Amino acid sequence: MSKTIAINAGSSSLKWQLYQMPEEKVVAKGLIERIGLKDSISTVKYGDKKHQLVLDILDHVQAVKILLNDLIELGIISDFNEITGVGHRVVAGGESFKESTLVDDEALAEIEKLSELAPLHNPANAAGIRAFKEILPDITSVAVFDTAFHTTMQPATYLYPIPVKYYEDYKVRKYGAHGTSHYYVAQEAAKLLGRPLSELKLITAHIGNGVSITANYHGESVDTSMGFTPLAGPMMGTRSGDIDPAIIPYLIQQDPELKDAADVINMLNKQSGLLGVSGISSDMRDIEDGLQEQNPKAVLAYNMFIDRIKKFIGQYLAVLNGADAIVFTAGMGENGYLMRNDVIQGLSWFGIELDLTKNVFGATGDISTPESKVRVLVIPTDEELVIARDVERLKA
């Protein structure tokens, strides 16, 4: 029986999902954490069972060996030959990859070269690809790019208003991210609305620890909030989102702890956003607890977060000249009913109305009132399924 495994490799983690294809049935899924550190954790979930292992995992090759060994030892598969395809999430495809691609030595070398655009992600993605190629060299290997969905943006949108030589010589431009998620939920929104995607104008809001918002016109990304890197856009869990770039040299001059631009970028990526403003946490659930306690910094962080989300949705209502639906997805988008309520309340001038009961208790689907001029949808994302589908498509 044919199985496909979807891989999402981080710098110290490896998330995976094994599918029975073409039925798209999840056979097992797991997460390996703390790769390269002591007491690494490998968790496998299959059926109603859970298996966990704590040991030192040196690198991604060893992590893949443990993953595959668990599949055999736990009886999830009887032979490695059952796995006929592997799909790898790759964050940055730059202008080189406009769609998912079969991975050969040339493609892998280009993915590693593009690490300059995603230094936190592409090296780990490439390590995951190399690990699988070493252990299962004969199966179909596919790279699925976060940026690919956004390659339909036009120059007036993706170029920055700086001397054009920086694009021509160094490819400095908006690339976006979370494309697999935006693509998936747009497809699902069309099904939910019972209309062809080619007729719809959608604003898809991927709101997790990372946040990106996309304007989707007739099935294509025409603008998105993340930019040259995933640091741009609205405020996020630990990322600042958009700031005045002049702040960077100013902080280097003022703060002795920030020695160079790399230090400031690290602070903007890892110590800012909800965490930096609240001083409590990057997790919205903790911020909402702070709201209940009337913690002033939690209140400030929450209000800033809502403000930035509203502004980007407002921009994209202008870009699209109206929208058929606003789609919330990812961890916070799917579960944060208070956040959704406060964002949509701030857009009431556009005739957008939430059904307050459905917003809290509806979980997924259409949570707007019948009178709302724009539908508001909650759709769980499934990036791993998109990866598995692309493997099957390219395997044929």
From TrEMBL:
Site (Transition state stabilizer): 178, 239
Positions contributing to Mg(2+) binding: 8, 383
Keyword Oxidoreductase: no
Record's keyword terms, sorted: ATP-binding, Cytoplasm, Kinase, Magnesium, Metal-binding, Nucleotide-binding, Transferase
Cofactor note: Mg(2+). Can also accept Mn(2+).
EC annotation from Swiss-Prot or TrEMBL: 2.7.2.1
Residues at which ATP binds: 15, 206-210, 283-285, 331-335
GO cellular component terms, A-Z: cytoplasm
Enzymatic reactions: acetate + ATP = acetyl phosphate + ADP
Role according to the record: Catalyzes the formation of acetyl phosphate from acetate and ATP. Can also catalyze the reverse reaction.
HAMAP family for this protein: Acetate_kinase
Protein name according to UniProt: Acetate kinase
Organism annotation: Streptococcus massiliensis
Lineage: Bacteria, Bacillati, Bacillota, Bacilli, Lactobacillales
